[in-house]
Write a structure and sequence with these properties.
InterPro entries: AB_hydrolase_fold, Esterase_phb, Plant_Biomass_Hydrol_Est. This protein is an alpha/beta fold. The protein has helices at about 55-65, 65-70, 105-120, 135-145, 165-175, 180-190, 215-230, 295-300, and strands at about 15-20, 30-35, 45-50, 75-80, 125-130, 150-155, 200-205, 235-240, 245-250, 255-265, 270, 285-290. The protein has one domain: Rossmann fold (3-Layer(aba) Sandwich). Mean pLDDT is about 95; it is low at about 1-10.
């Protein structure tokens, strides 16, 4: 069943479709989808993970993903946390049963993806994932535990894979304390699956003034993946995009495999640009209108808007 057109972005009524019966759901998650009218066979899928205190609908309206899906012909899947699993609606990226392959929340999300891919004839080579905060940290989990599923991932105000394995560790890592070394973080990704193929590309976004998840976590994510992609320690090049610094790492063939945006004066949240002809989303708590649309730039990075 396809969704109707996205309502006005100021309208927060439910515009997503509930996905039921997608599997055993060991993580006890909910799931919703947005499939634009006329979605083509072998079209791409983006998995979007909300942050703490958010819902699938509120994150979608704030980020503008459904509006972009209508523009570009992209299917969307929104895994959603239940308050019975986490009081503030966070994905449980720091719990051992929820940050390993084959169980918990990661397996639930994998089952959702499989169902949506089957229902809508998704191109298996064009499946991507993004998320904010706890959703960003769970994006790190999914990219590490199921790398064969994703062509790329975008981590916004998130943390590296398995930088924490308990709630207390999570609080310390969020504040920038005690993170494992890049070498250890790399080994954790390597050990998360038996994958030997082409690794997903990585896009990292973080506020330079983030007081909830320290900006050092962005560099630790980049450090975790630099060894995976076998790129140099220093960026291939640095450029300015919509006033923000973008650092880029290319593989030996010149393909951009890692990018990092640090929005210097931004706090904790998803950077959006709601104004102008190409504006997307709506400003609200943790959806920060700072003049650059992470949604649009991430979609461009993945080749979804060409």
């Amino acid at each position: 069943m396809q969704n109707q057109s996205l309502p006005q972005q100021s309208d927060l009524r439910d515009h997503l479709t509930v996905l039921d019966g997608f599997g055993t759901d060991p993580g006890s998650l909910a799931a919703k989808t947005y499939i634009p009218k006329g979605f083509p066979k072998n079209g791409p899928l983006v998995v979007v993970l909300h942050g703490s205190t958010q819902t699938a609908e509120s994150y979608d309206v704030g980020s503008g993903w459904s509006a972009l899906a209508d523009e570009a012909g992209v299917a969307l899947l929104f895994p959603e946390q239940r308050k019975t699993n986490n009081a503030i609606g966070s994905f449980n990226w720091f719990k051992s049963r929820h940050n390993r392959r084959g169980g918990g929340e990661p397996l639930s999300i994998r089952q959702m993806i499989r169902q949506v891919a089957k229902d809508h004839a998704i191109d298996p080579a064009r499946i991507f994932i993004t998320g904010l905060s706890s959703g960003g940290a769970m994006t790190s989990v999914m990219l590490a535990t199921y790398p064969e599923v994703f062509a790329g991932g975008a981590i916004i105000a998130g943390l590296p894979y398995r930088s924490a394995d308990s709630l207390m560790q999570a609080f310390f890592r969020m504040k920038g304390f005690g993170s494992p070394s890049d070498r250890k973080l790399h080994a954790l990704v390597r050990g998360a699956s038996r994958f030997t193929g082409r690794w997903p590309t990585i896009s990292v976004w973080h506020g330079g003034s983030d007081e909830t998840v320290d900006r050092s976590n962005a560099d630790r994510i980049v450090g975790q993946w630099k060894r995976i992609h076998k790129v140099a320690e220093t960026p291939t090049r640095i450029e300015t995009v919509d006033g923000a610094a973008r650092r880029i790492w290319c593989d030996p063939r010149g393909r951009v495999v890692i990018e990092e945006y640090i929005i210097e004066d931004m706090g904790h949240g998803t950077p959006i640009c709601a104004k102008g002809d190409e504006g997307l989303g709506q400003e609200s708590k943790y959806m920060l209108d700072v003049g650059i649309s992470s949604t649009r730039h991430i979609a461009n990075f993945w080749g979804l808007t060409r």
